[in-house]
Amino acid sequence: MESSPYLIKLEQVSKVYRTGDIVVPALRDVSIAIAQGEFVAIMGASGSGKSTLMNLIGCLDRPTSGQYLLAGHLVSALDRNALAVIRNRFIGFVFQSFNLLPRASAMENVELPMFYADVPTAERRRRARERLMQVGLEHRLEHRPNQLSGGQQQRVAIARAIVMNPRIILADEPTGNLDSKSSVEIMDLLERLSASGITVVLVTHELDIAAYASRRVVMKDGQVLSDTGRANPIASHNQKSSARLEQVSS
Amino acid sequence: MNILHTSHIALETLLRNKVRSFLTLVGVTIGVFAVIAMVAAGDGARARVQQLFASMGSNMLVVLPGAAVQGGVTEDFGTKATLTWSDLKAIRNSVPSVRYAAALLQTTGQTQANGRNWATSINGTSPAYFDIRDWPIAKGAYFTQSDLMGRAKVVVLGETVVKRLYGAGIDPVGQVIRINNVSFQVVGVLAPKGQSPRGQDNDDAVFIPQTTFQSFIQGGLQEYIQGAIFIGATSGDATDRAERQVTALLRQRHHIRAGMENDFSIRNLNDIAQTVTAATRALSLLLAAVAAISLLVGGIGIMNIMLVSVTERTREIGLRMAVGAKTAQILSQFLVESVALSLVGGIMGTVLGIVTTQLVAHRFGWPVPIRPDVIAVAVAFSALVGVGFGLYPARKASMLDPIEALRYE
Q: Which string of DSSP letters, residue by residue, matches B19-66?
């Protein structure tokens, strides 16, 4: 296996949306590389392509052309189900609107990704409880989303995102629906996760939120307008994740 | 992602929308109920028809003498005597699948008693005839073999004749009646048998020994039987065999060469019974088809509600995909839901079907057996409806684009 120093590496990636005869280029020849442990903020106006970039990095979508290497593996060629496994094991999502199951408790919401990884019940419970404690919700285990504040709901979502021990957390406007106090709490939480070695990619249009990141990428018209540069890649992390990815895809 | 988790989600979703789930499964309930009830009705009708045929005389064959050919015109069977008394004896004695054989000599005549008179069918036969027709006696007794030997002037009356001459509820046994101005003593009254399939009243007849018939009612040729031979086979299954054996015997006795036509004909009631049974079977098939259509409508109801469910839960599906659900896992989640709906509906329909048919059977005395095979098929078919009609919505769910699903409002 090629040992790329980068966890995320996009090479000449384009994405074109086709609605009938109308062809909308959302990304044009974007190349970007993100190392393990980086905290990156992707910024830009709406329509700049930042969400498309996010979806591609999150393996929710495949590029029209170009290559996406995740931990050295070419994932741009994988099919739906293989991508589902990658998302399950390597990527945690945090959404603006939380996307919790409304009728499920905090515990059940956090357990969800583990169902799809066939984690045994006892282990599932233990890990869900542990993660909820980690985000400070140990007294809200059996609460449903509508019994929790926005900030608490987003913390449940973060617990869900990290329960499978992912390499990457993708946060799409994670504070968009929160008041400023909750926003600070959530960003502190993401910062702590980043410090623990998880790669955090954040999409936001708020400058003060982007300020938490160590690197800022600005998008415009489907291209990278500016990039504040990167921290040093940490090769050791990379090799570990390479090995894990190898297990999944084989 | 185990089946337990899948079932749990499905059950939870169904319980969340109680009224909706209930109404949907009622569609399947009605469908399965209709299938079970209709099949039971068809079975009941068939059993009833078979019962009726059994009452006409079990395992019965009728041998009619051959057609007379006059001036190139073939007249109907029975117009010329070709059957002999020794044919009858041979059939009775040498065909293994024949249990009874009896001649039936028939004419119409006038009966008089109690100051009234009534024109009816006068029949000369032997006691075996009543066994062949499976015709029990209601009062008194049949005439006997010794009555036959002694040309006794005794008569067994049909129910209708008793009613016409004496009125209902009168026991005429021991009375004397006149048949074509000859006095006969009544020895028995037959149990009512009702109408024949041709609409004739079976009970509008009197029966006397065939020897008496020949001496006092209608003479005839000594050697030939001026009538038909009734045959009772050893069992229902043996009827067709008896027909073949009797045919072979009579052809040999009448010296009919291969390729020549028979100078007699055999009516096999089994054939008629089979025809009618086939007709009722076609009827039950039709009923089942109608019932199957209602089950189909129930299935469409499931599909409809599953499509609503998929649309409602688009975001949830998107989220499940984002956290790692594979296509098959989303598919099975929705399939389990639709199968659960249709299976519960199917079981409810089965219970309802059994209870209703048994009530009807009890009320109207119809023989309606519970058929485990029909129940198994109905329940299996309802589950199949769940899979069949759940597949499209489930597939639709599993093929959603996760990005669009997550963005769905």
A: HHHHHHHHHHHHHHHHHHHHHHHHHHHHHHHHHHHHHT-TTEEEEEEP
